[in-house]
Design a protein that fits this description.
465 residues, alpha/beta, TIM Barrel, globular, GH_1_N_CS, glycosidase, Glycoside hydrolase family 1 protein, Glyco_hydro_1
Length: 465
């Protein structure tokens, strides 16, 4: 078994809107996530005084982060991916001056991480933006939002320049194609013209943030973040191979722009044939030349693509993938494909020749607490073991990988349906879907397993089969 590199960054990943809670504390404004109490695919709900939802408290990471970071340090984390809630810094999104209380919270958070030798990996926008920007400007439909985001990015780069050396711009940027309000602040029924124009503005903002980061923190590295929804051809029929190529390009497009600095030719054809005419200015093309330092991505499952229209009805899940008949599925119907992670790592490295960072990978499952207070989760251990084996194989293939942050290292509110019963963590949080519980933290069996993997640099992993 090849040892993982000594400088490989081990850790976990979480998002402000799924973990912090304290949703209006210390001057924070409403975010788009705050008006989606049933999850990213749920209805938009106008908030009224006195109402409450599970995400409003979440796991109370806002107040309990010292305890949680100590647990992460006990596992041996050298990296923790977190996000900054944009509306903690600029509550309405368009202010000139930031909210000092919001900035101070992240100072305390990053200082606590540094105290334990944990490197912050910070996402600027993780499935949320100030709700007021959607109300006043139409979200990312407006070019003005580019400047608001750049102002926010420059503010936090300047504030945390000595504390944060790894940054990401937008979480799973391609998800806006499936959840427009979550991704770009547009109504859920927005057409492709509107969504792609908003995404163009977001891509320009991302590139401007790269420029700002390089200018303000010369020794930092900044990357993009893709949802790695890789598809295989369902069969070796040329039509299926071509369809898999087409579907993979729907998410690779975002990597191509951010890593290569321009729109690829295949997207220009797609826009032409779809009747989409984007407002792309000369200044935008110049901005987009600022490319990311590394590619980061989430990987949970693979799927198949078929040109057979009769199989379209079988396509399911968020990404509309045709099920792979050779793979098992989780309780939530997500197909489990460890080898797909190695395939994706090689695919991205061959395509971009830039360092890669696996910033989300994990298994959502129901856990049971035994009468003696323990949580036995061999299914989670097996999942992580098999995927990390494939990461080691990709390293052996010559792929440059900066690190691995599991989703999520502690139980948190799930993004899709805002529930606690779908648990990902190595650490159990006593909280149910109705928000009842003590919030007590407990180490699962997987906690000790992951600790040993990190300590041994992968030597304790068991080869597949």
């Amino acid at each position: 078994m090849t040892l993982f590199p000594a400088d490989f960054l081990w850790g976990g990943a979480l998002a402000a809107n799924q973990a912090e809670g304290a949703y209006l504390a210390d001057g924070k404004g409403l975010s788009t996530s705050d008006v989606l109490p049933q999850g990213v695919f749920g209805p938009i709900v106008e908030r009224v005084a006195g109402d409450n939802g599970l995400k409003d408290q979440a796991i109370d990471f806002y107040h309990r982060y010292p305890e949680d970071i100590a647990l992460f340090a006990e596992m041996g984390f050298s990296c923790l991916r977190v996000s900054i809630a944009w509306s903690r810094i600029f509550p309405q999104g368009d202010e000139d001056e930031p909210n000092e209380a919001g900035l101070a919270f992240y100072d305390r958070l990053f200082d606590e991480m540094t105290k334990h030798g944990i490197q912050p990996l910070v996402t600027l926008s993780h499935f949320e933006m100030p709700y007021a920007l959607t109300q006043r400007y139409g979200g990312w439909a407006s070019r003005q939002t580019i400047a608001f985001f750049e102002h926010y990015a420059r503010t936090v780069f300047t504030r945390y320049r000595d504390k944060v050396k790894y940054w990401l711009t937008f979480n799973e940027i391609n998800m806006a194609l499936h959840a427009p309000f979550t991704g770009v602040g547009l109504p859920p029924d927005s057409d492709k013209q509107a969504v792609y124009q908003a995404l163009h503005h977001q891509l320009v903002a991302s590139a401007r943030s790269v420029t700002a980061c390089h200018e303000l923190i010369p020794d930092a590295r900044i990357g993009n973040m893709l949802l790695g929804g890789v598809r295989y051809p369902l069969t070796c029929r040329p039509e299926d191979v071509q369809e898999a190529l087409r579907q993979n390009r729907t998410w690779q497009f975002f990597g191509d722009v951010q890593a290569r600095g321009a729109y690829p030719a295949y997207m220009r054809r797609f826009f032409r044939e779809a009747g989409i005419e984007l407002d792309i200015r000369a200044s935008d093309r110049k901005d987009l030349r600022a490319t990311v330092d590394f590619i980061s991505f989430s990987y949970y499952m693979s799927g198949c693509a078929s040109a057979d229209p009769s199989l379209a009805e079988q396509a399911g899940g968020t990404l509309g993938m045709v099920p792979n008949p050779h793979l098992p599925s989780s309780e939530w119907g997500w197909q489990i494909d460890p080898q797909g992670l190695r395939y994706l790592l090689n695919l991205l490295y061959d395509r971009y020749q830039k360092p890669l960072f696996i910033v989300e990978n994990g298994l959502g499952a129901r856990d049971e607490v035994t009468p003696d207070g323990r949580i036995h989760d061999p299914y989670r251990i097996q999942y992580f073991n098999d995927h990390l084996i494939q990461v080691a194989e990709a390293l052996d293939d010559g792929v440059e990988i900066l690190g691995y942050t599991s989703w999520g290292p502690i139980d948190l509110v799930s993004a899709s349906k805002a529930e606690m019963s779908k648990r990902y963590g190595f650490i159990h949080v006593d909280l149910d879907d109705q928000g009842h519980g003590s919030l007590e933290r407990r180490r699962k069996d997987s906690f000790y397993w992951y600790r040993d993997v990190i300590r041994s640099r992968g030597q304790t992993l068991k080869p597949a089969g």
